[in-house]
Amino acid sequence: MAATEDHPSVLRTMRGISRPVWLLLAGMFVNRLGNFLQIYLVLYLTGKGFSAYGAGIALGAYGAGSVVGVLAGGSISDRFGYRWTIVTSMAAAGALTTLMVVLPSLPLVIVVAAVVGALGQAYRPASSALLVELTPARQHVMVFAVYRLAFNLGTTAGPLLGALLITYSYDLMFYVDAVTALAFAAFALSLPHTVPSTDAPAAADGGRRSYLGVLADRRFTLFMLALFLNAVVYIQHIAVLPLQVTADGHRPEVYAALLSLNAVMVIALELPLTKFVQRMPAKLAVALGIGLVGVGMNMYVAGPAIAMFVVATLVWTLGEIVGTPTVSAYPAQVAPPGMRGRYIAAAALPMQIGYAAGPVIGVAMWTVWPDGVWWGCAAITVVAVLATLAGMTRTTGDPDGGESAPDREQAAASTH
């Protein structure tokens, strides 16, 4: 019985999810379902008569704004609370998105796209911190798997909905995007106003209550290094894999089928497998996940048979399934009091940098030595696994050994 309570099943976790957490998950799903701006911005702007080059700059500005927004959202959520960060982020992003349909010049489009990118991502540290705050520690990994399911379903269905709306009007697409952001803000209004803990020692050391304090945590910086290296490897399935598939004589449809296989596996299998993954120590789950991603990518060197491409994709997808829920939960679990938002944002930054640098590194290597990309993935993965094992030395839960708010409440109830 104790083992069941320590490692709850999927159904037990789903039944135990509180109403605020369901509201958060539903709001995030609706927001992702209507996240059309980044996907269709280039098509929209070129259709309006702007140059492809200008449209690319606008998309780049949106991406840069997203990175800044995550970092700013981490600080804001730690200072002002998680609920109001989500409400403000989503309400402002929704309002500004409606302006995109009336902007007359490219410079204005670029500025507004950057601001919308920042506002539209500022909620993410707060939402992850709230999931940890409102969920018992033993359920963190499973709840983040549910979170990823909602995120992936919204991300998968969103482009299809956007394509349908475009058949009527690009303007309608932007208005629906704005409505979904405002809906998330409305959902967030019903969330509890959780004020991040600010114990006296942390508050007294102002330098520690900033991103400098995160960087001073050497073990966590090793974890961040592992995330960066893993992102460089993982993104090769978008950067170099299509080149490998076509170079081996296959049609582009084969590459599309491999991506679909990945998406279907993640959506169908992540929750059931997380039931077992949550029993593993955090560092072993992450190290195994990162290792499988590297092994899968390395297997592409064995082509050109389609069966080999399928097996390799199955392996790295399994790594994604095994490692990502724990990676998502870990920063908030080990953050000092009052620093959860910053730790979550700091963990997101190296991944974004890896996703940006990975294609440049991979394609450059491909032009010189195609097989070297996949051997390089293996070598990088070894370093990433070692950084994971060295960096994730703390037990999960609050770094001082404390419990999450729901655990404290349950413990208090049991003593009366």
Automatic annotation (TrEMBL):
Region: Disordered, residue numbers: 395-416
Record-annotated Major facilitator superfamily (MFS) profile domain positions: 20-396
UniProt keyword list: Cell membrane, Membrane, Transmembrane, Transmembrane helix, Transport
Keyword Transmembrane helix found: yes
CDD domains associated with the record: MFS_MdtH_MDR_like (cd17329)
Coiled coil: none
Pfam families: MFS_1
Origin superkingdom: Bacteria
Primary localization: membrane
Gene3D superfamilies: MFS general substrate transporter like domains
Name the record gives this protein: MDR family MFS transporter
Source organism of the structure: Sphaerisporangium corydalis
